[in-house]
Every structure is written in structure tokens, then in C-alpha cells.
Amino acid sequence: MKGKAYEQRLQLLNITTLEKRRQRGDLIEVYKILTRKEDMDPTCMFQFASRELNLRGHQLKLYKKSCRLNVRKYFFSQRTVSLWNSLPNHVVAAPSVNSFEKRLDDHMALWTTRKALLHTSIINKYKYKYKYKYDRLSSVI
To answer: Is the overall model pTM greater than 0.85, yes or no?
Structure first.
């Protein structure tokens, strides 16, 4: 285990990356705050997007404030807004925390699979388009 790369250790232990685990935890906490399952007023941390704009997606869209400092940009209430707004309605409309976690896990697994398929198709398209250059490059490496 000691001599293995990070990705290999993750596969052996069957866990996701630290970044994905943090995102999952952040989204669960946002769900608890917005659905008032935490003893906290959601307007203290977040500002809801205006409903008059007819936005796509779910009813709990959040407004992302602009910020010029990294301190603010990486604060919990800022870094989670884009992730939260990208969730589909069936995930956000979960009736309980457990069902939200399950739906979120399913959505993230589907998103990861789509991302991997897209990456593979881009590589294959590049190989086909630049076959001669790719063959020369792979023979050098």
C-alpha cells in the first residue's frame, strides 16, 4: 500500500477522492440548512435566487455573490452554490436526509460515469483525427 499511487490506493480501498467526499458532505449540509433540518436560518448563509427570472432547475436555486478575495471565494456559503444549483430537481426535492444522500450518490456516480465516457470519446476522437501525429507521439513515449 505504501508504494502505490493515490489513485491505486483509492481503487484498492474502494473509496472516492477527498475532493468528492468534501463536495458530498458540503451538499448534504446545504440540504440540511435549506430544508431547516439544522437549527439555523438559511438566509444567514445563503441568498435565494429570484423566482421572477424563470430559472431552470429546482426551486431552491441560490444566488452566487461575486467576490474578489480568495478568502470569500472558498468560504462554505460561496463554494457550494454552483454545485448546489447544478443538482437536478429530483435530488433536491428529497423528503429526508437519507433519501437525499442516496439520490446524491446516484447522481454523482452517473455524473462521474458520463465524465469518464466523455473523456474517452475525446481521446478517441483525437486519435482518429490526428492518427499520424498520435502514432508518432506514442512511439516516442
So the answer is: no
Distance in angstroms (rounded) separating the CA atoms of residues 27 and 104: 9
What are the tens digits of pLDDT across the range 16-75?
888 889 999 999 999 999 999 988 898 888 888 876 665 677 788 888 888 787 787 788
Contact 40, 103 (CB under 8 A): no
For residues 30 and 23, what is the distance between their CA atoms, to the nearest angstrom? Answer: 10
Using CA atoms, how far apart are residues 107 and 126, in angstroms rounded to an integer?
Answer: 28
Q: Could you tell me the residue ranges of all domains in the chain?
A: 6-140
The whole-angstrom separation of Cα 109 and Cα 101 is 12
